[in-house]
Design goal:
The model has no long low-confidence stretch (mean pLDDT 89). This protein is α/β, with parallel strands linked by helices and 198 residues long. It has 2 domains: 161 residues, 2-enoyl-CoA Hydratase, Chain A, domain 1, CATH 3.90.226.10; 32 residues. Helix content is 52%, strand content 14%.
């Protein structure tokens, strides 16, 4: 789906959310991992990783509209989004440790990049959830909304993003993503090059 949206000139922003208000995405069926060989576990983790890789390759802004529980793979999908907004009822958790496994689609790495190593270790090593207010304090989500107002807030944000120059948004996304992994001087050079292209 992300590849199709990337190719479509009619799509300027990608919003994704769960149905209703119970869960954003609860994650993978953990029963699949019960008794799985390491090779089978790799195949399972590769499925969600393929979706995340497509998200990261998408030049358009991706907004996770988190309306409920974002657990396991669901939280990993949210962390891979460019912008995250949440309902006040949202909860975030990487509970894999309680099953004797660890996140397999980048959750521990992205959480450490966004909220710091200490918080990432605490959340992944205890498997305990945090609420929306704590997620906002840690910079995991950029805003919190009343559940009844979340859809309108998402639409307003999408409108602002869609009104911006598509190419410039793609350049910004690339520059900021590159900055997370590059030395400062290389990141600054990348920004100057992207500026020149705009």
């Amino acid at each position: 789906a992300f590849r199709q949206m990337t190719a479509s000139p009619d799509v300027r922003v990608v919003l994704f959310t769960g149905q209703g208000d119970r869960a954003f995405v609860a994650g993978a069926d953990i029963g699949e991992l019960d008794g799985a060989t390491p090779r089978q576990a790799l195949v399972i983790a590769s499925r969600i990783r393929a979706v995340i890789d497509a998200m990261l390759a998408c030049p358009k802004p991706i907004v996770a509209v988190i309306n409920g529980l974002a657990y396991g793979g669901g939280f990993e999908l949210a962390l891979a989004s460019d912008i995250r907004i949440a309902s006040s009822r949202a909860r975030f958790c990487l509970p894999e440790i309680k099953l004797g496994i660890i996140p397999g689609a980048g959750g521990s790495v992205r959480l450490a990049q966004i909220a710091g190593a200490g918080l990432a270790k605490q959340m992944t090593m205890t498997g305990e959830p945090i609420d929306a207010a704590r997620a906002w304090q840690l910079g995991i989500v950029s805003s919190i909304h009343d559940p009844d107002d979340l859809g309108a807030a998402a639409a307003e944000l999408a409108g602002k993003l869609a009104a911006s120059a598509t190419f410039a948004l793609a350049q910004l996304k690339q520059v900021i993503d590159h900055a997370a992994d590059a030395p400062t001087n290389a990141a600054l050079e990348n920004e100057v090059s992207a500026f020149a292209l705009c």
